Amino acid sequence: MSIGHESGVWPSLGETLHVLTFQGGFNTSVVLVGVTLLGVAAGLVGTFAVLRRRALMSDTLSHATLPGITLAFIVAVMLGASGRSLPVLLAGAALSGILGVLTVQFISRHTRLPEDAAMGAVLSVFFGLGFVMLSYIQTMATGEQGGIGKFIYGQTATMGVTDATVIGIVALGTTLASLLLFKEFRLVCFDPDYATVLGWRISLIDLAMMALVVAVTVVGLRAVGLILVIALVVIPPAAARFWTERLWVMAVVAALLGGLSGYLGAAASALFPRFPAGGIIVLVAGFFFLLSLLFAPARGVLAAGFRQLRLRRDIASQHLLRGLFEAGEAGGGEVVPAAALRSRVHGPAARLALARLTWQGLIARRPDGLRLTPKGREEALRITRNHRLWEQFLMAYADLAPSHVDHSADLVEHVLSSDMVEELERQLKARGRLPRHAGPPPSPHPLASGA
């Protein structure tokens, strides 16, 4: 598959475009398709594994495949067959991985060790055993052991058409199986108790899910390597989780990110064969994760920070409007000096709120202070009324002292819906605490004024 430069010289733009557009040769194109399908399958299957909290189990599975690979090589050589046959090595990896998962389940169910401790023990023991057997293979006079180490780190650039075809077929089959079992996996991931009530056998569904993880993990060993293949199962779903709250969208995005990671990583491996393919593919997936972490509109860091700032600005806006209203109510006149509102107009959010309220025409700035416009007074009246309705409710039903209700009302007044306000009015009216006029109830602490 290699068309890059062993000397480390950067490939030309033409070479890069030829690889990315499937014009770099038949072998290269087949490998690109195979690894892309692997990424799609890993992202889709990994979505359910992550939601089912099976990511560490998948890591154990990937490390537990090494003894199977080495044992399959030894047995094949002893029988006179080729020890580097991919189907033989993958069969050994699958059996060893399944044995590792079953060992974890046996330990966690029949001993006092928690599942994470069992997984750590099995992962370490199986991986250590695999390295011992790998060292033994290096002493065998077969002449075929040179490529076995590639299963640890992956080597996409040296894959052949047969290898890529096997990977593509297994990945495509795994993807179709995941789509067929989508409903069952969704039920188990989000409400296993309800699935049990409906008569579903959770253990069987979990077994089917782990079987698909085994298939993706084992078939990905050749391309990504057993150390990093788990990253292709975990990182795309983790990145997709930042973009949506819906499972089917998360599955599609995870499959897309996994496919792009495989495609771009395999292309880079063809252009730079000196670098390990598994590391490149995982780095591409990690780049997508970083982009999702920062820029995803649903759960990204920047979007969350923007929403928090907007919420603080809205709260500061309402506090400022209420402060102006209460200052005028206490006899401060229509124009309130800015110094009288120092406790409400401070910090970036409050200054942003003041600028926004002025731009919206709710507050008018005067040389001697601030004044509510008619539109602003109407909004301030609504906010103040909601605040004091909640204060009256707390004093009437929670038996709180007037000095203890202001802070609670400050927190709640911003989320009171119209239905909640109507219910407050009905209950306070029944107790005679609601004034006859449409204005706000009297403040329980009138001396607080607008400060």
UniProtKB/TrEMBL annotation:
Sequence similarity: Belongs to the ABC-3 integral membrane protein family.
Gene Ontology MF term list: DNA-binding transcription factor activity; protein dimerization activity; transition metal ion binding
Major location (coarse): membrane
Subcellular location: Cell membrane
Span of domain Iron dependent repressor metal binding and dimerisation: 373-430
GO cellular component: ATP-binding cassette (ABC) transporter complex
Pfam family, one: Fe_dep_repr_C
PANTHER family, alphabetized: ABC-TRANSPORTER METAL-BINDING PROTEIN, METAL TRANSPORT SYSTEM MEMBRANE PROTEIN CT_069-RELATED
Residue ranges of the region described as Disordered: 431-451
Species lineage: Bacteria, Pseudomonadati, Pseudomonadota, Alphaproteobacteria, Geminicoccales
Source organism per UniProt: Marinimicrococcus flavescens
Biological process annotations from GO: response to zinc ion; transmembrane transport
Transmembrane listed as a keyword: yes
InterPro entries: ABC_BtuC-like, ABC_TroCD, Fe_dep_repressor, Fe_dep_repressor_sf, Iron_dep_repressor, WH-like_DNA-bd_sf
Keywords in alphabetical order: Cell membrane, Membrane, Transmembrane, Transmembrane helix, Transport
Name of the protein in its database record: Metal ABC transporter permease
Coiled-coil parts of chain: none
Matches recorded under Gene3D superfamilies: ABC transporter involved in vitamin B12 uptake, BtuC, Winged helix-like DNA-binding domain superfamily/Winged helix DNA-binding domain
